[in-house]
Amino acid sequence: CRDAGVCAGALQRLLTIPFETDGFYLNALRRAGRNLAVQDVTLNQDDPAQVIVNLTGSLVPGGVCVDAQVQAQLLLTIFQHPEVQSAVIFLEGRNLKQLLDASGLANAASAYRRSEFVTN
Questions:
Q1: CB of 97 closer than 8 Å to CB of 110
Q2: Could you tell me the pLDDT band of residue 117, with boundaries at 50, 70 and 90?
Q3: How far apart are CA 103 and CA 18, in angstroms?
Q4: How would you class 51 by CB atoms within 10 Å of its CB: exposed for 0-12, middle for 13-18, buried for 19 or more?
Q5: What pLDDT does 29 receive?
Q6: Is pLDDT above 90 for 32?
Q7: Is 43 in contact with 87 (CB distance < 8 Å)?
Q8: What's the whole-model pTM score?
Q9: Measured on CA atoms in the order 21, 23, 34, 116, is the torsion positive or negative?
Q10: What does the radius of gyration of the chain's CA atoms come to, in whole angstroms?
Q11: Tens digits of per-residue pLDDT, 62-99?
Q12: For residues 98 and 59, what is the distance between their CA atoms, to the nearest angstrom?
């Protein structure tokens, strides 16, 4: 995302979609999230292909299925921009990948990689 404001706008829009739309689309962020909002989105100065997202609010643990849906909705929104290759997402200053990692392998600096979520 060459313009961090575009990424921030897309994420903020995602966070405002109702839990259920037209009886079809379920927004896991609205189910698990409490007052989620985009604080800011910046490009990493050392790696312009990486975005850093700071969110405010909280998540209610929903289990591995809901956690995967939450991550996928955020990341597919971010990775819709082909120039973005990685993303670090913080929720109230804590690394989201680390918070939702059931394996215990992620750390405070862990980044999501495009190759983990986008196949083409």
A1: yes
A2: confident
A3: 31
A4: buried
A5: 84
A6: no
A7: no
A8: 0.89
A9: negative
A10: 14
A11: 777 888 889 999 999 999 999 999 999 999 999 999 99
A12: 13
**In the structure encoding, which two tokens stand for residue 78, read together?**
């971010």
Length of the chain: 120
Compute, in degrees rounded to 10, the torsion defined by CA atoms 114, 76, 30, 35.
Answer: 60
The identity of residue 77, as a single letter, is T
pLDDT, residue 76, reads: 92
Alpha-carbon dihedral 34, 66, 7, 2, rounded to 10 degrees: 150
Q: How far is CA 81 from each of CA 17, 21, 49, 67, rounded to the nearest angstrom?
A: 20, 24, 10, 23
Spatial separation of the C-alpha atoms in residues 34 and 36, rounded to whole Å: 5
